[in-house]
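The records we work with from here on pair a chain with its fold. Each token is a code from a learned vocabulary of local backbone shapes. A record is reproduced here so that you can trace the correspondence yourselves:

_____
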Amino acid sequence: MNYAWSPIVNRKPLALPDGKKLALIITMNCEYWDLTKDTTQNYYAGGPPMLPDPLPGNVADFPNFTWREYGQRVGVWRLFDVFESFKMPFSITMNAKTGLERPEIIQYAKDRHWEVVAHNYEQGELLTNYTFDIERERELIRNTLAVYEKVMGKKAKGWLSSSLRSTPNTPTILAEEGLLFFCDYMNDDQPYMINTPAGPLVNVPYSIEINDFTFFHRRAMSTWDAARMLKDQFDQLYLEGAQSARLMNIGLHPHISGHPHRMPCFREFLTHVGQHPDVWITTREEVAHWYLQQI
């Protein structure tokens, strides 16, 4: 692998800015799905479906498509409203096609100076499709980054792959393109360095465990079970952070978390966060720059 083996107990302590104990990033994944694909193979849309029976890519799957589109039309705006009422910013991940086809969502984030992270071109076009074709993977990444620059008016600093499915070549391609950080590797509670032939990247871990797909869908947690789980995760990392900094990421998707009955979960969790003063509400880019100063 392109990173060092490093048990957390063997590392020197990390100190967050201003004596904070825990860095908290709340990720809103703003994704886009094509209605159909030019293929007879099953269309994996970069995340679990609501109705599990797969259809060929060239057959419109309206139940799953419109379930996901609910997040764009309604859910994301509800989540924006609730989190802003707690003065809690998001780190947005953006498929290139979200920026092109759903510009109102991205403009909302830009107006608030929230972080926006490049997140593939279209959610269902996975980098793993090009595991054995590095030039096709490079082309997809470059096309994504070109749209990011067009939409955002600046170059991307970081990358999260659709469905977290990258290839062994992905970090090198991203380093070639001048990116600072990468988020696909979920094996730590602290950032760490990835070494590539084109230079280093900071891995700022995402989470599939603390992720609404997992706790609401795969594990079918209730609103209150999910709130308890988020608070328990926060409390343990906050405790450990007194000795050495910890990072907590929460991964949300508007079509999963944006339904009315789930708002009490987030209100309860955000109230809990607000009772703890030593929390750094931050972005992946800020974490990456901070970590480079620590090593």
